[in-house]
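Progress narrative, Year 2. Work on Manganese efflux pump from Agathobaculum faecis advanced from sequence curation to structure prediction during this period.
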Amino acid sequence: MRKEPIGSFRNKMPYGSVLRFSGKGVFVRIQMLSVLAFSAAASADSLVVGLSYGLRKIKVDWKSNLVVALLSLAGTVCSMILGRMLLPVLPDRFENVLGGGIIMGIGLFSLLRPWFSQKGKDGRERVPRALTLKSTLLLGAALAVNNIGLGVGASITGMRLVPTAACAFLCSLLFFFGGNWIGGLREGGTIGWLAEPVANLLMVGLGIFEILV
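Result:
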């Protein structure tokens, strides 16, 4: 049997297809990073609320955590569907600028909000002192509403619904549970003070990234 030179297989593959394959791989990685960054930013409120309960020595059980995560998931899915409906009517390339601008604007607003809002004497927002069924539903609804703007922006920039919603759901579960656990530790107060501004900066960075890419 005649053996072909090693380089013959390389010659049979068009150079452009290699570039397209490589470019697709890079694009997938960038999308994954965007989804992870969005999920972390969207779940920041869950982390802060979990920390707040932990600091008050209120333990969050898995049922309450699941209800909050499901309601937050519903808000993310509905807002991303709304963003997908708006996508066909937007001019070419405008969707990234609009979606990234929405995400960046929410991050900036959340970052500057403490300077314009009145809070309790301890500088933290008021939360229910006991995690009853009613307070769990109200908390989940509030977090779902908070995610509407982010979900619309993420969908407009081209993030896929299923992986984005699934990742946001898992992050909500982990962040709420982790925040509650960390809040019960001695260092919980310091971490809670840093969590919200870091998440808001992450949103601003994600918005800028989506505009430029």
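The chain has one domain: 55-212. The chain has eight helices and no strands.
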